[in-house]
Amino acid sequence: MKSKYKIFLCSGLGLTLAPSSLLSSNKDAKPNVLIILLDDAGYNDFGFMGSKDIKTPNIDKLADSATKFSDAHVSASVSGPSRAGILSGRYQQRFGAECNFGETLGLALDQETIGDAFQQNGYSTACIGKWHMGYGVDYHPNKRGFDYFYGFLSGSRSYFYQPNGADKPGNGSNLQLNGTQQKFEGYMTDVLADGAIRFFEQNQKPFFMYLSFNAVHTPLDATKEDLELFKNHPRQKLAAMTWAVDRAIGKVINVLASKGQLENTLIFFLSDNGGAHDNQSSNLPLKGFKGTKFEGGIRVPFFVKWGNKFNNTTDFKGLSSSLDIFATSIAAAGIKTCSLKNKLDGVSLLPYLSGKKKGNPHEFLFWRKDKMAAARIGDFKMIRVEGLPDKMYSLKDNVNENVDLTTSNKKEYLKVKHSLENWEKKLIKPLWTEGEAWDEVVFLIHKDLMNNEPVKTFTPWDLPKKK
């Protein structure tokens, strides 16, 4: 009886999430959706974000005609849980995925993915590049809503073919096409772009594509030609790798344009977390980096473009999240939330993109990974690390997060603290952690950052050996 009632509601009048004025002028033309996700990219490492030394002409061209979100965050400061949040549209802590996935577990099987939602509504779906959502058969992209998978299951790999390493048969880092290992020549970033283009050439239906580059994650591999372009650059390898991913994105966008598909493609661009400490990236003016609860770990470059529909808005300052990608995408496609298996934590950004709504899409945002957590209400953000005193900052006045307000503004601190605790009551315990060594590293990193001191410990190998 409940399922019939749900179907009735979903078929009822007035429940389509995308207003007709936001859809294509051709009523039968469903919009395509393209998520372009980079890996460990620095907040300040794109021209459109103010970089003077990292060249990104193709990305900048897209951003120039897009809505840029200056207060956008991912749901985790490391890759696995961040991507779980994007793909599910839900806080990944709801299903225990707070830390990076190991080799046995993956994105919980009771979670519907954005690929599932589009696949069930007549779209061709593609996942290109890094998966990092589980190695097992049941976690494979082809079982999680993607018709076409051209990429690798692991969290990182060499950018070049390694028959005795990443590309050894049976390795989770193999490049594969729908489960079949593929040999390749050239540079992985270019190879992934070519895989996306082959999908476009074969596809005849509206598409949803999750284009998940592993650039600019370590190892710092680049082609000789790209390195030569930046031979005197102080961040030569990062500059070369970023140039390559910019080139790849340019190729993909140019093919969409040549096929007449670009104007009706909703495009999201972001990084999965902040720049890492070991890939030459810059998160300035933010404090921290990948793996931390400071803004440098969770605030990311983010823009949205859908043809010329939103050219009245170029810079949006409201508090937003990568969780919003799922909700925004299905709203654009006219897929109703009542048809979904699980309730989303993200919200549709379409009313904000069109200018119909102002302000913050989110009043609250929360983060938790094992023994560290953070919460944001308006301009105030609290960071909590087990074993250390809490810190709270006003991001409006102090985006550098170096002036603690827990004592001087105790009322606001308690409000944020209690909001985080109430949110945690709705979660389950993490199904796995990253172990004692990484717990100690994370503790020491946050201790230094919270005391406004230089970080001295980055990995378990930096820890003193126990006697």
Q: Main β-sheet, in a few words?
A: 10 strands, mixed
Mean pLDDT: 93
Write the element-wise H/E pattern from the N-terminal end onward: HEHEEHHEEEEHEHHEHEEEHHEEEEHH
Helix content: 25-40%
Lateral strand order in the biggest sheet: 7-6-5-4-8-1-9-10-2-11
In angstroms, what is the radius of gyration?
A: 21 Å
- What is the 3D shape? globular
Q: CA-to-CA gap between the ends?
A: 65 Å
Oligomer: single chain
Total count of helical runs of at least 4 residues: 12
Structure description:
With 467 residues, the protein is α/β, with parallel strands linked by helices. It has helices spanning 2-10, 57-64, 79-88, 114-119, 188-202, 224-229, 236-258, 295-298, 324-333, 350-353, 410-424, 436-450, and strands at residues 32-38, 67-69, 72-73, 124-130, 148-152, 176-177, 180-181, 207-212, 265-271, 302-306, 315-316, 320-321, 364-369, 372-377, 380-385, 391-394. Strands 7-6-5-4-8-1-9-10-2-11 form a ten-stranded mixed sheet, with helices on both faces. The chain has a four-stranded antiparallel sheet with strand order 13-14-15-16, sandwiched between helices. β14 and β15 form a beta hairpin.
Which terms summarize this structure?
single chain, 467 residues, alpha/beta, 10-stranded mixed beta sheet, 4-stranded antiparallel beta sheet, 12 helices, 16 strands
Quick rundown:
By secondary structure, the chain is α/β, with parallel strands linked by helices. The protein is built from twelve helices and 16 strands. The strands form three sheets. Strands 7-6-5-4-8-1-9-10-2-11 form a ten-stranded mixed β-sheet, with helices on both faces. A four-stranded antiparallel β-sheet has the order 13-14-15-16, sandwiched between helices.
